[in-house]
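Structure, all two chains, one model.
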Amino acid sequence: MNNFEFFNPVKIVFGKGEIAKLTNLVPKGAKVMMTYGGGSIKKNGIYDQVKTALTGFDVTEFSGIEANPHYETLMKAVQIVKANKIDFLLAVGGGSVLDGTKFIAAATLWEGSDPWDILTRRNEINVEAALPIGTVLTLPATGSEMNGNSVVTRWETKEKLAFGSDFVLPKFSILDPLVVFSLPEKQVANGIVDAFVHVMEQYLTYPVNSPIQDRFAESILTTLIEEGPKVLANRTDYESAANFMWAATMALNGLIGVGVPQDWATHTIGHELTAFHGIDHGRTLCIILPGIMNLKREDKKAKILQYGERVWKITEGSDDERIDATIEKTVSFFESVGVKTKLADYGVGSDIIPKIVERFEARGIKSIGERGIISIADVAKILELRLK
Amino acid sequence: MNNFEFFNPVKIVFGKGEIAKLTNLVPKGAKVMMTYGGGSIKKNGIYDQVKTALTGFDVTEFSGIEANPHYETLMKAVQIVKANKIDFLLAVGGGSVLDGTKFIAAATLWEGSDPWDILTRRNEINVEAALPIGTVLTLPATGSEMNGNSVVTRWETKEKLAFGSDFVLPKFSILDPLVVFSLPEKQVANGIVDAFVHVMEQYLTYPVNSPIQDRFAESILTTLIEEGPKVLANRTDYESAANFMWAATMALNGLIGVGVPQDWATHTIGHELTAFHGIDHGRTLCIILPGIMNLKREDKKAKILQYGERVWKITEGSDDERIDATIEKTVSFFESVGVKTKLADYGVGSDIIPKIVERFEARGIKSIGERGIISIADVAKILELRLK
């Protein structure tokens, strides 16, 4: 295993009815901005629970944070935060609201000339301050509730970019599995596959003798495979909702990624499908991952075989047969929860390939994936494999 | 799964050579007390590494913290801390040094009349302040490097008592697996079984539908079973040392215990064997655990069968046969790393039974274990089962 640092001070408050604890989790006397999305929390009762728990607090609301939160929207929130001297941000929503709120927190205290630099110059400039954040998670998927990562989209230029900082780690996150009951089926499915691929990005690389990290990753994958379909089949199954929710958080809180190589090429390519065609984030991952597994079967052989054996019980056949069977099982799982895995399923044709290649070239990207095994030419091949 | 809160802000700095990072981890300008044990760190080079990294800091040394750290010793340190206006404690050692330092940190800022109350009145009074602590771990075993627990022994009265507080969570812990190379074999063995039983105490109860926690627990157990013997067989195998070290930390940092029932009866009884007979902590656990598994095989049936199947691949026979085989495998594992599992192996006879029973009765303890399934009469039976 490689040397590593691990630091995750997010306080998790997990379980049914726990939203009421907000009263004691938000700092006394805080001037709060409550951020949320399109208003579904007003229909499912979460808005009311939050507002009741915040009785007595000075709360400004900022709604309308969209899926793949827009830089333009978030900068409007920054203006309001500054004008109202807000000192605590409470994000009530899924990954988009949480990611957007992290950006608001960082941009508010950003001392550079242009907050856009937080996203475009992330390799040169660090976020060194941010307003404190708390979250009430309404959609298990991204793990944003227990990490310091954020992905923001500039609508104007269709760019989807990420940043990360310990300063935007939430002070607390409330995870009440009851929120899963009222989610649209499509969002549950997106959450299941999103969490699944988060694990894969940290796991499906090459062996570095890391049995704890490997087995924890396999534990989360197996749990998503078992519990995900139960959540979809019985929308009021609390236990399955709870297990799905905890699995999604553990999938991307940093723990399974310590001391091991990571990939993230599926995300890098997938983000472009969202940026160009608005395909849901989780779905883009299910399109791309099988292509990477197929094309990079030699580089990833040891881990694909281990994953196939331990997660899918595939032990028969030649290495290539086992790899094919493992990819097939992975694709079938995605499809079984209702997520299509080919570009054609989303009405996207081969014209996407040069567009993505061109964009990567314009950004000066030479290769992606662990050890840079995926060249720009490979990106084109991977997309080719996933056309139809 | 049950509702839970999880909060673990300890920064882990893991890997070979990482002790040098102390220079930047200890707060600038801190007045440091460096605590350690009997001086083995002077022989294995860790002392020199720490001192080099602390060049320029104001460092007071406090050595001589013994195994099962003594209240009497720790209170001497508290006096020195106060007299010298120490504001940061750096514990360099194993679980005893770390636990002892946590007590020093809490006792220094204790506002009650008697710091002994921290241990005896833990159910009534909380620790609400403590000096900040950093640690350099020299012995993987107790998990103290990533939790807020501490066990202290009052030598005068042979009482071994525990307390826990978020305030004594280390600010950082440096885990350099190279420290394992110079450990006496006996200490490595103790560490392996200690970590193993920590997992069992959080796992071997009754099912509450917690697949992530269960599989993580099984992951750690399996890793200890695989890596422990490798560490003992090749004392300079870095990879195995690293995996053992990370497994021991994950065994008791709170993660596998969230939302599930916990037992801890093995520890409660084991502590008395240490208090009365000075048997190494890890060894006491290996004596007691098989007795509890045997006597409470009905209450714990579902989890014993799951543990036997997933960890030891025991799938044949009646439930009782599988349970017997599972206990046998567990005992064999302990013995295989050189840890004896019967009281007679340590020269302890049946006269210990009334002594422990009497002490529990004097403390007003009616029952222990999850759901209070172990009565005081059961404690006697468990000890009886483990005589020889």
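Residues 189 and 338 of chain B are 7 Å apart (CA to CA).
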